[in-house]
Q: What sequence folds into this?
């Protein structure tokens, strides 16, 4: 199916997949932060802040510099590794 896509369509699909992965990771971090806040409020606040930053990046994947998106995706990869999540790509 991707063979029939224009470069612009392919880029849009790639951006949407990245945005989704970043949003899912932000939710995981938010959940962990909620649990952390019961034992260490500062750690909980840090996790919530990290999730908020990822959410912001995820909302603007298509317009941010690639370096910023790449760093956010490195967080996604690290969290996936930690949780055992295996993402599949459509490309």
A:
């Amino acid at each position: 199916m991707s063979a029939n896509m224009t470069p612009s369509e392919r880029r849009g699909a790639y951006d949407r997949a990245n945005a989704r992965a970043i949003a899912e990771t932000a939710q995981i971090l938010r959940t962990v932060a909620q649990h952390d806040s019961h034992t260490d409020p500062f750690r909980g606040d840090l996790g919530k802040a990290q999730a908020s930053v990822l959410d912001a990046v995820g909302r603007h994947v298509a317009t941010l510099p690639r370096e910023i998106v790449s760093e956010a995706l490195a967080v996604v990869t690290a969290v996936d590794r930690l949780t055992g999540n295996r993402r599949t790509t459509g490309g």
Summary: The mean pLDDT is 91.
